[in-house]
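Render MFS transporter in 3D.
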Amino acid sequence: MTVFTHHDPLTLRLSLREKVAYGMGDFGSNLMLCIGTLYLLKFYTDELGLPAFYGGIIFLIAKFFTAFTDMLTGVLVDSRRHIGPRGKFRPFILYASVPVALVATAQFMANDFSLTVKTALATVLFMLFGLFYSLMNCAYGAMVPAITKNPQERAQLAAWRQGGATLGLLLCTVGFMPLQALFTTTPSLGYLLAAFCFACCGLFCMWWCYRGVNERYVEVSPDHHKPSIAKSFCAIFHNPPLLVLCIANLCTLAAFNIKLAIQVYYTQYVLSDIHLLSWMGLFSMGCILIGVLLVPAAVKRFGKKQVYLGGLALWALGDVLNYLWGATSFSFVLFSCMAFFGTAFVNSLNWALVPDTVDYGEWKTGIRAEGSVYTGYTFSRKISAALAGFLPGIMLTQIGYVPNVLQSEATLAGLRQLLFIWPAALAVLAAVTMGFFYKLNEARFAFIIEDIARRKKSAGNTPADAPTGPCPLPHYK
């Protein structure tokens, strides 16, 4: 079933109010996510007293677990047959955001249990956070094709989403540690109260998103299409543009998360000024916001793929310059701004490209499955996040990191390599992948949308040529 509320979906314009509401969704989710991405490993090592190796193992286990809960979310979304007035996706945003906020706060609770119990408790809490976050955030991301079919409006929604995510990351970077530092005598309490404040703000923003967006094109999969985790994997390998995007995103998200996890150590021990992190966050996230604002115009002029590749080039260049000449606070902030400016285009277009692959999948197979496609994509993101959380913990151990003491020269050199060389190399690998293998350009996408509309018009909105056999090997027609 398809519900159309506009005579020409390709020309529908969304209101500014709805775009802002959609952006608030990623602002809120990132307020709750980034406090863990940025500071949870440091909380584990410096407050809970867990070895960095243990922190890496916790990240690895929890993120691999949530990779599969993302798949489960896709199954739940695509399994819905009776869609109420709240829509197909919005109820997940409404109800799952409450436990996300609660668990995000509970992760920063200090305790005096044994090392084994501390590790087990931290792992369970992180896994619960991932489960509820999957239910909330995967539905939020998969909702875009139900909001609009206009590719320019999708690009703008992606820009608003990335703008919200950037503001959330900026606020976490600039505000969390100063808020935590107010409790100098009890730093563990500072972590808990700071996490509580950010979680409450995030919950409010998710509810704002729920109330402000509309699902105009709600589609229910036919009864013979039984969604499953296996079909989510199949959605990736039967959809060449999605497969390429997953591989590129595996690289870019790992690079970005490694940077976020290591920069707090770098500013404290290499530059000897942990408060510089707030200033760096202010300027670099400001550069990201500028980049996000430029995304729609840049895409209109050059196309999504070219803008994506340009962002990767700026990102890699900024990291290489920082490794060579980023030994001072000024140069570190300057080159970080260049790198983060490049990430704005990459991270924004990640979300603008996914809805295009949904339409490609429908055109190729006759079956539309936003949940399976989106969660297949987020599966690759969670695998990347698992590696990005695991590697810093392992590498901190390998380079000889010891909490709250002066670090050796070898350790300082290792921190520089972790923060700059690894992300730059991954950005280059992503650029090669997208440059040579991603073929879904604007002209091809416009043809696909028109062809889908013609099929539905001639077949009474029922795909007549939907294949029912197993997924063939990926290829382009």
